[in-house]
Amino acid sequence: MSITAKIQGLNEVVDVSDWKRDEATGEAFPEGSREKALYVAPSKKKYNFIIPLHHYLFKLSFSRYPEQFWGEIIAYKIGILVGVEVPPTFVAINKNENKTGALIEWFLGYPFTRSEVKASGALYMQLLIKDYDIAKGKQHNFQAIRRLFEALKFGQHKWDINWVEHWTKVLAFDTLIGNTDRHQDNWGIIWKYENKRLAPSRVTPIFDNGTSMGHEILENHFTDFDKEERIRKYISRGSHHMKWDLQESQKLSQVEFLQRLIVEYPEMKSVIAGLMKFDTTRLENDIMELTKFKVPCPLSYKRAKFIVKLLAFRQKNILSIFGN
After folding, report:
1. Cα dihedral value 221, 258, 203, 41, nearest 10
2. Strand 14-15 to 89-94 pairing
3. Is residue 238 part of a domain?
4. Tally of structural domains, the chain
5. Within a domain: 67
6. Full domain range(s) for residue 12
7. Structure pTM?
8. Bridge partners, 103 (sequence order)
9. Assigned domain for 277 exists
10. What is the pLDDT of residues 241-262, one digit of tens each?
């Protein structure tokens, strides 16, 4: 399926009312606190951008933040714009339940990848860190990730991957959208059976992006952000889920984390800057188009404008630091 078909899908609502629900649990789809359901697309093709008989995650919002799911859809649009892999995500409804959510294409189980399996970051953290607290993930740290990927690249698997560039893009993308939830279950490595043995194949796309874009700011507080200093203060409080290393007690801010990263990998500064040099007019147009969807829980014009404001500020801030 072409990327063009999937982009066109961003202008059409998918009704999952008559889709088969898959009651699978565990690693079939990521755990989390927001309500979600796994569906199998019908065999009869109704939408050009939906893969027949493939799995899709229908993801809703916290009840307190009903528009939160729109962040998943916007993140996919941004991923296309900046050139990072985010799972194709579409606007969906379940008419029988009067629910609106994000329909996320699952990144396993494609016809040409049946032999693939996913191992989440939680598994690796448990292997690398003694007494790892999988419930809270407070020991989640970048140095453990580095040890893992270095072992896969230079150990017996000889995995040809530029893992530093991959993680730079993930962390820069999260900094742009303000995602603070890249915990140990929100990344992983996909393995494939090759020559009767498992071998690392690819890293998971950047999935689970809804804890971002000011989703927790209620509409009656949007005017608080009319002043630049208020936005700057808000953004400066954002941090990545992981710490830099196991010894540090405090998390770095998202920008500080990137700064620490380029001290060790100075060549990544151009990668960060490259991701941020996107067309802001197109970004705004893409986001504002979503306000036109006639669904039970629409994206309000005010929230769309608020999201645009935050993204534009973050882009400008990141470029001011890493764009020189």
Report:
1. 10
2. parallel
3. no
4. 1
5. yes
6. 3-105
7. 0.94
8. 58, 90
9. no
10. 999 999 988 899 999 999 999 9
